[in-house]
Amino acid sequence: MSRQLLGVALTTALAVTLTGCGSGGSGSGDEALEIWIRQPPESASARTAAKLAEGFTKASGIRTKVVAIFDDFETKLQQQAAQRRLPDIVINDTAQLGNMNTQGWIREVDKARIAGGDQLSDLAWQAALGSDGKHYAVPFSAQSFALVVRRDWREKVGMEPPATWADLARLAKAFTDGDPDGNGRKDTSGFVIPAGTKRGYASWYAASLIHANGGDFVKAGGGGRFASTVSDPRTVEAVQYLQDQFCTSRTVNPGAVSNDTTVTHEVFEKGQGGIYLTGPWMLARFVKSLGTDRIEVLPVPKGPSGGPGTLGEGENVYLMAGSGNEAGQQRFAEYAASPDGQRIGMNKDADGAIVRLPVNSRVDLAAERQDPRWKVFQDSYAHAVYAPPVPNWAPIRQTSADTINAVWADCSADVKAAMADLHTKLTAELQSQKAS
């Protein structure tokens, strides 16, 4: 299939058209503003994105078209870039900023000229910074991570919520050996972990425990320079702790080293494991599938050598280069970050939230969501750690995932030696990016 036909097929198959049709990148200002979001087509999240765009159209009079894509999102963006037909707006992960900026896909944002920009949290604005100290996006959604735990299982095995990593390991062992579902068979695990290498999931998962122990992958050194810290004893300790769960205690669900998040969600829902370190977007789904009384959300315990901390992530609104409607791009970004846009994206307590934690200080999370479990994620965000603004974070996450996955899959692997080797690789990667 030619690239031109592929672009037509993508738009036809995946677009959720709200008002008319149009294309980004080369048209006049009266064309529909094309908005891409990394969500499964026809999902609850895609429908929320459609509502957000519809609200923007009503407020601004600017027509919109939403394209929801989940699989191979970045690859499809590359295909559109090759055709010089990038969408006008992309709502995508904060960690993708460096990669998108390196390829010249996104425009610089003047923070001072963003209406309502002073209402957005300083931490969220940090996730819109490039390695040159300039902003290349408008914050849209924030998230930290916490433990989603089967409360009914915890009560069945007679244990309290974990306050330390040792407590967490004991709870996982009880879920593995203590028949928490009461079926008389040893068919449950403590942890469910997306430990595969696809999209860097192994390092993505490990990051929250690494930050909870005061460790990190890469640290900024000033002047746009960065240094690898993966051989730091606190980082090694966190990866070793998880290897122990895979190899010594054997408290992780079978097959985890090959699983991505899609599979891991189902493992948790099927009752094959009882502790899932994940983000707030899964809460409504698990409450619906498992029952609200069975689910609790607990903070990630502080590690033995540092913390507290979790991975900090979210989504930005990226204003794509080459748009024929730059004024419309900025107006959409301002609306998405406004109290009205944030409330639509939060979607109350229902499934399909595309704003997990609001970035706008004028939005009261407790007023929008009645489920008090959201507050655990909000409290954890105060000490969340975002990926640093290196020119391209994607290869750093992927290389880290390959190493971490390998030491979890091979119980004979020496974690300290593997992390020392990873340090060498990340140092070389930073040098190749001229960021070391």
UniProtKB/TrEMBL annotation:
The keyword rRNA processing does not apply. Keywords: Signal, Transport. PROSITE patterns: PROKAR_LIPOPROTEIN. It comes from the Bacteria. Pfam families: SBP_bac_1. Belongs to the bacterial solute-binding protein 1 family. This is Extracellular solute-binding protein.
